[in-house]
Write a structure and sequence with these properties.
globular; Rossmann fold; nine-stranded mixed sheet; two-stranded antiparallel sheet
């Protein structure tokens, strides 16, 4: 097991790992995705995610001490229902600059030596949540 700095959730049965520097909006994006996909999504973990490899498949779980907790800036730590474990399907990377027409190789990333679909999206300072959600919806549709 390995613990990484990221946020994770499940959308329509697909495990999504959101990576980005501190302050890039991982938690806020996750809360917006949970609201947008209400009834079809659930939190796994915020800020720290346990990565477990089983039979060459990566699974994500919340560390026990933060299970069900997520930060809502301006409000503090809030408690939400969460899922104990989910298979990783998509890596969302919050990036510092927008690429208008990304190259194909930008849509893949390796984690623990295994290749996964990747969705690079501009951090919150560069775009609004509706654009971020559209990019994630398209990436999920292409899985």
């Amino acid at each position: 097991m390995k613990n990484i700095h990221a946020t994770a959730l499940v959308i329509n049965g697909k495990g999504v790992l959101i990576r980005g520097k501190q302050g890039y909006g991982k938690s806020l994006l996750t809360l917006e995705l949970l609201d947008y996909f209400k009834g079809k999504s659930s939190l796994i973990a915020d800020d720290r995610v346990d990565i477990i490899i089983e039979n060459n498949i990566i699974f994500m779980s919340p560390p026990k001490n933060i299970a069900g907790l997520i930060e809502l800036r301006g409000r503090g730590i809030i408690s939400l229902p969460y899922q104990e474990k989910a298979q990783l399907n998509l890596i969302v990377d919050l990036v510092e600059k927008t690429t208008r027409m990304p190259e194909k190789e930008e849509f893949f990333a390796k984690i623990e030596g295994m290749q996964y679909a990747r969705c690079p999206i501009p951090e919150r300072k560069l775009t609004d949540s509706s654009h971020q959600i559209l990019l994630i919806k398209q990436a999920l549709a292409e899985l």
